[in-house]
Design a protein that fits this description.
S-adenosyl-L-methionine binds at residues 80, 82, 107, 128, 153, 183. This protein has 567 residues and is of the alpha+beta class. It contains 17 helices and 22 strands. Among the domains are: 54-267, Rossmann fold (3-Layer(aba) Sandwich), CATH 3.40.50; 293-360, Alpha-Beta Plaits, CATH 3.30.70; 385-452, 2-Layer Sandwich (Alpha-Beta Plaits), CATH 3.30.70.330. Helices cover 26% and strands 18% of the residues. The strands form 6 sheets. The protein has an 8-stranded mixed β-sheet with strand order 1-8-10-7-6-3-4-5, with helices on both faces. Strands 12-13-11-16 form a 4-stranded antiparallel β-sheet. Strands 18-19-17-22 form a 4-stranded antiparallel β-sheet, with helices on one face. Bound molecules: S-adenosylmethionine (SAM). S-adenosylmethionine binds next to strand 2, helix 3 and strand 4.
Length: 567
């Protein structure tokens, strides 16, 4: 450790040439720097006066920075170190850290907050991305049972496989919940919030020091304000946020351009998540077994086994519902699904290296439409012709459909059009039987959806027959295109779950003669819910009521989750 030559604050990064320091020395010990938020009543603030701890924190931070030779704080890593030990103590107090607690600390840096956590009696698991700082903090505390430091990027950190065993081993509480306390690099705060808030099974509270602006925004629970954003839906769904107090920028070295603030999130357990059904329904969105992961932008010929293998790396896959170009993956554990989403979203996959879209399905599909909703609410007028979707468009032949449907009566015609088909019976009663029997059934590994066609061929004007006419003149398709609940709609892009993402790959409009079928299946008007092809382009949507209670649902359609991450 480099010795301190005087009691006055040394340069935090001793330069080989003292005459030309690369950075200004840190400021003198700061005056009281906690101030209440000026931003209105929804953000209660705590006024904390600075105390003698100020200089202690200051000196130990500077000493640490000097301890392993010259260290230039890295802006890209948000390295603004805390100089005021009082702030650290307040962070610890806000999380109620006490004897026997296990704490995940993100970015220990020089170890000043780590020190306060250890002093409170906690066992600390610290994740530090910067190798230099990880070594520095190890040096500072030496080997102790109560501290584990790993060098890793928190945004890529597998909490369940790396942290849970530690928690199991170290927690002395029966509840086995850990806490998160961190003076976070400002640039990853939303990533961290998104990563950890859904982990109410692991963490009870998360207390973060982040940019004041961000803290104010995240703590905003009032849906009525114009500032209310998708991230607020997320935050309030998974936690109870509370703005604690502001921390002025002069408390950090180097001094950032903005002030910081401390915010706490009391994490909810799955059972506490707001219900997402109608008021009559008590269904909750977060039941792990019920909510599949949407995996979009797949090759049309992607195989179920490939998807199983892919997701199987992150946990047990209960089942995979393959659709055309997308799939729903049911994982046994919600945390494994979270991990899969985290790892696989936007990863290139398949022969053509498409970028996957992986995210939680936007609707609780457990309503079991497949099992209990056999008919389209939009199209209840029985016809002799059935409209079939969701079969494998590459491998399904007319004869496969015939075989699948002919047990219900005499079929007069089967027509496949890209990835939808019409099956016409001679008798309407047979069509009804077939609809009841085949909707939600499996054909060549795909769960198909069946509903009545809007009209029968023989109802068409001038004795229309699709077999005699060109595709473009098909009244069936014209009819469907015109409906708001259209399964064909307006030609959205493939694999983009309706957030305006996924533009890298265009999708020909079905109705306009694109050469590869990626129909726009409309928006959530699917009578079959989970089984309709429209899910391929857009995961099912909640109704307005549900959206309010569900993270991500109030996103404007043109906005992307990527943007959400950048907030
Ligand atoms: C704002 S500093 C806080 C340091 C220290 N806790 C303090 O209070 O002085 C942020 C710390 O997080 C580390 N860090 C930055 N990005 C990280 C990441 N993705 N994962 C883990 N640590 C990260 C930085 O290297 C730095 O040490």
């Amino acid at each position: 450790m480099a010795p301190l030559t005087s009691l006055s604050p040394p340069l935090p990064h001793p330069s080989p040439s003292p005459a030309k320091p690369r950075r200004r020395p840190p400021p003198p010990p700061p005056p009281p720097h906690f101030t209440p938020s000026p931003r209105g009543p929804i953000r209660p603030a705590t006024i904390v006066s600075a105390a003698s701890g100020v200089t202690d924190g200051y000196h130990s931070t500077i000493r640490s920075l000097n301890s392993r030779g010259r260290h230039v704080p890295r802006k890209s890593l948000g390295q603004n170190y805390m100089l005021n030990s009082k702030v650290n103590e307040e962070l610890v107090a806000a999380a109620g850290v006490g004897e026997g607690d296990v704490v995940l600390e993100i970015g220990p840096g020089t170890g000043s907050l780590t020190d306060a956590l250890l002093a409170a009696g906690a066992t600390v698991f610290a994740v530090e991305k910067d190798k230099h700082m990880a070594t520095l903090v190890k040096d500072r505390f030496g080997s102790t049972e109560r501290l584990k430091i790993i060098e890793e990027d928190i945004t890529k950190f597998n909490v369940h496989s790396h942290f849970l065993p530690f928690l199991e081993e170290k927690s002395h509480h029966s509840t086995k919940h850990a806490k998160v306390v961190s003076n976070l690099p400002f640039n990853i705060s939303t990533d961290v919030v998104k990563l950890l808030l859904p982990m109410g099974d692991v963490f009870s509270i998360m207390v973060l020091l982040l940019q004041d602006e961000t803290a104010l925004r995240l703590a905003d629970a009032s849906i009525q304000t114009p500032e209310y954003r998708p991230i607020n839906v997320f935050v309030n769904f998974y936690s109870e946020p509370e703005y604690k107090f502001k921390v002025e920028r002069t408390n950090f070295f180097p001094q950032p351009k903005v002030d910081g603030a401390v915010i706490s999130f009391k994490l909810k357990n799955a059972g506490e998540y707001p219900p997402v059904g109608s008021h009559k329904s008590s269904r909750r969105v977060a039941c792990p077994k019920m909510r599949p992961v949407f995996c979009g932008n797949l090759d049309y010929d992607a195989r179920q086994s490939e998807i199983e293998r892919l997701f199987g790396k992150y946990g047990r896959v209960e089942r995979v519902d393959m659709k055309s170009g997308f799939a729903f993956v049911y994982m046994e554990e919600e945390r494994d699904a979270d991990e899969a989403i985290h790892r696989l979203d936007r990863v290139e996959f398949g022969r053509k290296g498409r970028r996957l879209r992986v995210e939680w399905t936007k609707e609780d599909r457990s309503g079991g439409r497949r099992g209990n909703s056999k008919r389209s609410p939009n199209n209840t007028r029985p016809t002799k012709t059935l409209f079939v979707i969701n079969f494998d468009p590459i491998n399904t032949r007319t004869r496969d459909l015939e075989r699948h449907f002919d047990q219900y009566g005499k079929i007069s015609n089967v027509r496949i059009r890209r990835n939808f088909a019409f099956v016409q019976y001679e008798l309407q009663e047979d069509a009804t039987k077939a609809l009841e029997g085949t909707n939600g059934s499996t054909l060549l590994d795909r769960v198909i959806s069946v509903e009545y066609a809007l009209r029968d061929d023989d109802e068409k004007r001038n004795g229309y027959s699709p077999d005699r006419r060109g595709r473009d003149r098909s009244p069936d398709r014209r009819e469907y295109r015109g409906r708001s609940a259209s399964p064909y709609g307006r030609g959205r892009e493939r694999g983009s779950p309706d957030y305006g993402r996924g533009r890298e790959r265009g999708s020909p409009d079905y109705g306009r003669g694109g050469d590869r079928g990626s129909p726009n299946y409309g928006r959530g008007a699917s009578p079959q819910g989970g089984n309709r092809v429209d899910e391929r382009v857009s995961p099912p949507k909640y109704d307005r009521e549900r959206r309010e209670a569900s993270p991500g649902y109030d996103r404007p359609r043109s906005r992307s989750p990527a943007r959400y991450e950048r907030e």
